[in-house]
Amino acid sequence: MDALVLLWPTLPRFFAGFISMYFLGYFVFFRNWEPKQRKDASSCLMSLAHGSPAVLMAIRALLHSQTVGSFAYPNSALENTVLEFSTAYFLADLLHYMVFFPDEILFILHHIATLYVFVTCRYMIHYGAQGLVLLLVLAEVTSACQNVRSIAGNRKADVPAAARLHDLLAAPFYALYSLVRGILGPICLFKMGVFYLNGGAAGLIPAWAWISWMVVIGSAILVSIVWILNRWEEWITERSHKAQKKVG
């Protein structure tokens, strides 16, 4: 009963907001697009509504924190709101994948794992949100660029301007993504790991919780690093081919 009371104030409203954004994209903004493009773009629009606002909310929560640098203090009200906001988004996007793209196993597993971390921290443990909120900033700071590029990518074969935008955003997006996911993210995770291993959360966060959080987050960072390395390889190869064509 207590969990239901806690869930009601903001989580359902956030969830309804994200679903409304999805429908707005699906039935209004992208209604004339091909079916798959329409669904992808609607998901990206929903992600746009989550990413940058989540970053701003998370930064605000961190700036108002009286315990910066600790990963085991009780969750603040602002931190809980951030977790609820992101939980609502991942629930909505998980629904999108399960309904329209059930074969996208990697995305579905990613969303389920992310939800596990957010839900256990927010509704079961009630401690340790600061580290997760910090990692959320790093994870979502690239969201705007990534989603605009993805939406443009859906139309690059038909709209020259979309193709140019998709190409223009590639290098800046890859560079920022590499910085936050490949460098800052692992540094933050390492500091969290040292904190937990040294007993910083003893008696506050159960070992099963912080260990599972570290495994989930570490796996996500590793997958992100592999993904961005593949994107860089594709980008360099594409640029090399274009350069060869110009020379030829």
Give a verbal description of the structure.
- By secondary structure, the chain is mainly α.
- The chain has one domain.
- The protein contains 9 helices and no strands.
- Helix 2 packs antiparallel against helix 3, helix 3 packs antiparallel against helix 4 and helix 6 packs antiparallel against helix 8.
- It starts with a helix and ends with a helix.
- The relative contact order is 0.11.
Quick summary of this structure?
The chain is an all-alpha fold and 248 residues long.
Secondary structure elements and pairings:
Blueprint: H1 2-7, H2 11-29, H3 35-63, H4 77-100, H5 105-125, H6 129-140, H7 143-155, H8 160-197, H9 207-247
Keywords: Membrane, Transmembrane, Transmembrane helix
Main location: membrane
Subcellular location: Membrane
Give the overall shape: globular
Q: Gyration radius, to the nearest Å? A: 19 Å
* Overall residue-averaged pLDDT value: 93
Poorly predicted parts: 1-7
Terminal residue distance: 71 Å
Number of helices: 9
The total domain count is 1
Helical residues, percent: over 70%
Q: Describe the biggest sheet?
A: none
Strand content: under 5%
